[in-house]
Amino acid sequence: MTTIAVTTWSLEQTAPTDLLPAAVPQGDVRVVRSEVPSPEFSRFLYASVGGDIRWTDRLGWTYAQWLEHLDRPGVETWVAYDRGTPAGYVELEAQDDGVVEIVYFGLVPAFRGRRIGGHLLSYGVARAWDLAERWPGRKPTRRVWLHTCSKDGEHAMDNYRRRGFRLFDTKVEEEPEIATPGPWPGAHPA
User: Fold this and answer.
1) How many CB atoms lie within 10 A of CB 103?
2) pTM for this one?
């Protein structure tokens, strides 16, 4: 099996004032919380956004696994819509002691390059900072973090840094090289 070297960068913000919001894109772009845990919708977002950049970790999840994950307190999915069509999403996961991870973030390929990503990331980070306000009993957020890797979109790292994230760790590991799965088996993303 062929392997590839994958660099993973971990980035963080440690105060709400670290966030440097992007401009709101022109047109009818809205970001809405998907409040009802929906394995079908979340899997659609995951496969549609990550299919061309080798997101495969969750493709084998069962319906029950998706539901269990989505139904946990402090897990939120925020979806960007461009004129009513899902354009991308950000998934937040509250962790212990006021830490929130941006577990997944990205755009469906057809919506990249339209200035939606910076806005969606800004919105998602702001929701990570105020997450405890929506989840009684959670400690206020004191740190927001994420990781990105060399397999992610070419503009991912620049977007994170422009939003005020700082690098705190870098790792390089060999991983099996896998085919790009696309949004569904047999699809050939553009």
Assistant:
1) 14
2) 0.93
CA distance 163 to 90: 14
Helix (H) or strand (E) holding 157: helix 156-162
Task: Output the pLDDT for position 85.
Answer: 97
What DSSP string describes 48-104?
HHHTTTT--TTTT--HHHHHHHHTSTTEEEEEEEETTEEEEEEEEEE-GGGEEEEEE
User: What would the pLDDT profile of 54-106 be if each residue is shown by its tens digit?
Assistant: 888 899 999 999 999 999 999 999 999 999 999 999 999 999 999 999 999 99
Sheet of 85-94: strand order equals: 29-33, 75-82, 85-94, 99-107, 143-149, 3-13, 166-176
Which amino acid, residue 7? T
Provide Rg for the chain, Cα atoms: 16
Residue 76 has a CB neighbour count (10 Å cut-off) of: 21
* pLDDT tens for each residue of 44-53: 999 999 988 8
